[in-house]
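Shipment paperwork, digital attachment
Item: protein structure file
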Amino acid sequence: MASTVWKGYISFGLISVPIRLFVAARENHISFNQVHQVCGTRIKQQIYCPHCERVVERSEIAKGYPIDKENFVLVSNEELKALEAQSSETMEIVQFVNLPDVDPLYYQTSYFSVAEDPGRRAYSLIHKGMQQLKLGAIAKITLHQREQIVMIRPFEKGLVLHTLYYPEEIRAVAEYDNQPEVEVQKAEVELAEQFMKQLTGEFHPEKLKDEYEGRVEQLIESKQGQAEAPSKQPKRKLAPVIDLMEALRKSMGQPPEVKGTAAAKKPPQRAAAQRKRREG
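Attachment content:
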């Protein structure tokens, strides 16, 4: 059974839908423990207080806001709980938006929402309406003691939520913002579009595999005598492309453009006739 990360209501006008949220996606990769190389024992990390000069139990730890390097204002979980907004229990839809209007750059963490039994009909109503109109909904929710903006959108059998970054959290990167615009030829754009169309198809996520993860698993199995050791992966040596048209043609499997003088490109009969007129 998946763990519920939030339980409350979606509020839509006078309609309240009781729901639960579950984490929709999580990174899945092989993890390693830190081991003492000498004896093979797993290393333990301890919380140490340099003032008291002893290891501290987790029950002794409090939240502290730094005033300077040595002084902190202590804040308890109860004090923070008392300050939580209404969005800690009720997620009110404040606006509907066209889904393409919200750039995926703002998407953060994804959650599945599941309606409680009394709210299934209202949940279905909201889901079907948003699906037909291709809309998303902006709402506020308190998760992990922080009020966050979320995008609610229809997905398959229900509604999924994506926490959104606030605008001030989107980093300003001077190297990205100050990139110069470079002119490209119309023929280059058309050939690039042609190549893109060759690679365009339906999205099948089940075909996407983490090949590196598979090689790591094989490495671990080989060290246990259960498989052959994986082969080392060759590294591609790349360099900046000088001739874009030539690179695109090769990518598409087209023969290279025949280069030469105008006379060389003329049909043999025409070239011979012109030569005969000049001689006459």
